Amino acid sequence: MSSGAVGRFWKRCVLWKQLTVYISIFLGVYFILISGLRLSTGFDSLIRKVTFSKKMAPIYQHGSQAHGEEEYEGYDDANPTMLESSHMNYSVQGEAGEYYEGGQFYDTMQTDFPPPDNPHFQPDPPSGPVKMNRDSKTKEAEKKAVLVGGVNKSSSFKLDKKKFDSEQRIRKSLLGEQCKKNDPRKVSKQSAHTMSHMMLIAPKHELLFCYIPKVGCTFFKRLMKVLNNNIPNTIDPYSISANTVHIIHMDYLPTAPKRKTEILQSYRKMMFVRDPYFRLFSGYLDKMFMARPSIFELSRYIIKTFRPRSTPAERKCPIDVSFEEFVRYVIHSNTYKTHLNYHFEPMHTLCNVCGLDYDVIGKLETFTNDVYFAMDKINQTSKLPKNDFRSVRIEDELKTVVNYAFQAKNNTCMTFGQRLRRLWRRAQIRGFLSLNLTFPLTDAEAMVTTKKAFLKLIKDAQFKSREDSTLQRNKLDAMIQIYGKVPMTVLLKLQKLFEIDCKLFGYDPKPDIIFRRELLRSSPFNYFNLIKVR
Q1: Under a CB-based contact definition with an 8 Å cutoff, are residues 429 and 421 in contact?
Q2: Contact 175/361 with Cβ under 8 angstroms?
Q3: What sign does the CA torsion over 221, 365, 351, 496 have?
Q4: pLDDT at 521
Q5: Contacts of 27 by beta carbon, 8 Å cutoff, 6+ apart
Q6: Could you give the CA distance from residue 454 to residue 74 in angstroms, rounded to a whole number?
Q7: Is 361 helix (H, G, I), strand (E, B) or coil?
Q8: Please, are residues 148 and 107 in contact by the beta-carbon 8 Å criterion?
C-alpha cells in the first residue's frame, strides 16, 4: 500500500473516531436531560403526595375511626364551610345524614362514612376537591363495587362491620349505664302505649322496629312494608308513596300477651334516635310552619293558651304559631301530661328503652351507614336504594311536600300562593334551594298551576342550586335564628325536658349554637318572615 493510501485511510479513521465521540457526547447529554426530567417529575410527584397526605390525613383518620379509609365527599363539592362568627368546638346533629361538628358541616347521606359521635373530633377538611389519578384496575374495581345508600361494599366492608358493632356496643353500654342511674318507671312511663302503636314487626325476618316520630319514621314504615312484601312491585322503600304509608295497614306488635311476649323475647329489636333539639325544630318546620290543616286543632290550643290576647281570627285560622309558642307548648304538655302529641314527646317515653334490650340503636346523624348495617344483620341490604340516599331522599321529599300542599289547596285559611311560598321557603331552610331564588309565582299564577308543573319548577330550582356553596349552612342558620328568639328562661326549661334523652343517647344537653347565642352571628336572611305574629 502506498504512503498516500495509508494517509487517506488514517484520516478516515480519525474522522470516524471524532464522529463517534460527538455521537457519544450527544447521547450522553440526551440521557442526562431525560434522567433529570424524570428525577424532577418524580420529586414533584413526591412533593404532591406528601402535601396530599398532610391535607387528607385527618380525613382518612376520620374515615378509619368510623368505617374504614374511604373517600371524603362533602355536601356537593367537597368544600365544607366554617362558621364565620366563631371557632367554637361544638357538636350538633341534624336531619337524616346531616352533621355539624366543631364548626364543620357534613352530609353523611352523600359521604361514604359517618362522622364519629366524639364531640371533640375536628377534622381538617381539604381546601377544595382533590382529584386522584386512577389506573384501569382501580376504575374497574370501582365499577364492580356495590354501592348501597352511599356505602361502598368493597374489601373494607368487614372492617366497617367491626366498627359498626363497636359503636353499637358503646351506645348500648351508655344506654344501660344511664338506665341504671334513672328510675326505669320514669324513663319508660308510656311503654304500654308504645307496645300497641309504635312497634312494627316483620315476622319473616323476626325483626321488631320501634319508630319514633321525626326520626325518619316515614322511611322506616316504608322499609318495614318492603320487608313484609305487603305491596306488589316495591323495589325499595322509596317506591312506596310517603303519603300512602301513613294511612295503610301496618304490622304492629300483637296485643295478645302470649304472642307479644314471644316476639319481645325472640325477635331482633331495632330503633333510631336523633338530637332532641333538631328533632323539635324539624317538628315545628313540618307541622306548624307548613300550617298543616291536620294539626289545626292543636295549633288553636297553642295560640289560645300561649298567646296573650289572641283574637278569634287567629284561633279560627291558626297558621302563624311562633316557635316560642310552640316550645312553651312542648314544655307544658310534657310536664303536665296534657294535650300531648307523640311527634313532640321525648324519645325515651316512646320505645321502652330501659325495658327492652335493643340489638341496634341507630342515629339519624349516621343514618346511611346505620340503616345499611342494620339491614345487613338480617341479610336484607338488597331492599335499600341502590343509589346514594341523599339524591333519592331529596326528590322524594320534594314530591311529598308538594303532594301535601296540593291536598290543602282548598283550605281557606291562607291563599294557595302563601302555602306554596312556605313550601319554597322550607326547601330553602332544608338546604335544597338557594336563598337567591325567590318564589317565582304570583298568587294568581299559583292558583292555576298544576301539581306536575310546580313539582317540575321546584326540581329545576333545586338543580340550579347545586352549585351554591351556602346551601350547606341554611338549616343551621335557620336553627340559630329561630332558637335565638326564645327567651333563655324558656330554653333552660327545654334543656331540663331533653336531659334524659341526651344522657341516654349521648347528645349534648346544652349545645352552644342554642345556648351561647352571644358568640353566634345570626344570618341576615330572615327565614321565618312568612310567619306573621303580632
Answers
A1: no
A2: yes
A3: negative
A4: 76
A5: none
A6: 29
A7: strand
A8: no
Contact, 60 vs 332, CB < 8 A? no
**C-alpha cell of residue 147:** 354501592
Q: Which amino acid is at 69?
A: E
**Residue 449, C-alpha cell as written in the block:** 298551576
Contact assessment for residue 385 and residue 296, using Cβ atoms and an 8 Å cutoff: no
* Per-residue model confidence (pLDDT) at position 231: 82
pLDDT at 186: 61
Q: In the prediction, which pLDDT does 160 show? A: 75
Q: How many residues does the chain have?
A: 534
Residue 54 has pLDDT above 50, yes or no: no
Q: Are strands 104-107 and 98-101 parallel, antiparallel or unpaired?
A: antiparallel
- Which amino acid appears at position 523 of this protein? S
- Kindly report, residue by residue over 237-249, the tens digit of the pLDDT: 998 988 888 888 8
**Rg (alpha carbons) of the chain, rounded to whole number:** 30
Residue 422 has pLDDT above 70, yes or no: yes
The pLDDT-based confidence of 149 (bands split at 50, 70, 90) is: very low
pLDDT of 183: 66
| Prediction pTM value | 0.73
Helix, strand and coil percent figures for the chain, each rounded to 5? 55, 5, 35
365 neighbors 505 (Cβ within 8 angstroms): no
Give residue 410's pLDDT band: very low, low, confident or very high (50, 70, 90). very high
Tell me the one-letter amino acid at 441. L
Q: Determine contact, residues 339/327, Cβ cutoff 8 Å.
A: no
DSSP state at residue 82: B
- Could you write out the DSSP letters of every residue in 207-267? EEEE--TTSSHHHHHHHHHHHTT-STT--SGGGS-HHHHTTS---BPP-SHHHHHHHHHHS
| pLDDT at residue 280 tops 80 | yes
